[in-house]
Amino acid sequence: MPGNLDLERALVIGVASSALFDLEESDAVFREQGEEQYRDYQREHIDDVLEPGVAFPFIRRLLDLNDLSDRERLVEVVILSRNDPETGMRVMRSVERHDLDITRAVFMQGRAPYRFMKPLRMSLFLSANEADGFAAGHVVGRAAADDGDTDLRIAFDFDGVLADDSAERVFQSGGLKEYQENESALAEVPLDRGPMADFLEKINRIQGLEDSKSVDDPQGYRRRVRVAVVTARSAPAHERAINSIRQWGLRVNDAFFLGGLPKGPMLEVLQPHIFFDDQRRHVEGASLSTPSVHIPFGEINRE
Prior knowledge:
The protein is of the alpha/beta class.
């Protein structure tokens, strides 16, 4: 794997051990018997490999994208953990046994490590523990079997995720009619970028490398990364979403404008490896079939 890491150019992701691995058994020991027994348990099981968690297939596929460049690391994943360094050893040994290309970690006993997102230039921090704080994307759902393939499908909600929530605030205060009129009048005016736009920008950079490989080998190269927007918007509000993405200099492969229809059934067919939404009810529905991340952004999450 390439060793040159530029934090400004690379896609840097933080992942809690709770999202990467299945820690249900370990967490039960902590809750029922306390910290000292938990530490003893982890020492006794240090060589027992942890099973994949809900974010494992997504993280594994992200890391595999590093083979698209022999000059630099495109993706860097850092473990951010509430474990102390000693009990964190089991996590790192499991990383090695699963052959994940993760070498960096931050262990902070009993404290949320999200403060280190900024110096590490992270675009995302995934955790299965809501207590990890407002900065974390809370990932929910069941761990899916990883088929070992290298394709990566990512799906985003639009408002409050790729874009800011200014249009959503119009909808919440004025209703659907005022919202549609506002979005029609501002169809050519891009919304401000939201919390996941930087993540999409880094993914688009990787897709640009795939573009070059496809040009060099149009018959033989199979693209691996595909991005979709799955949003409650419908016509005529769809135009502002499309125009905003274009004017940000970003792109997606697919868009689903559902007009308020449930997202879960669509995602079950689309089968993304991860889905991002700012509304808990959408995340809860989607998580029945898809690893889903609640992005706690905007007014709707401050209630």
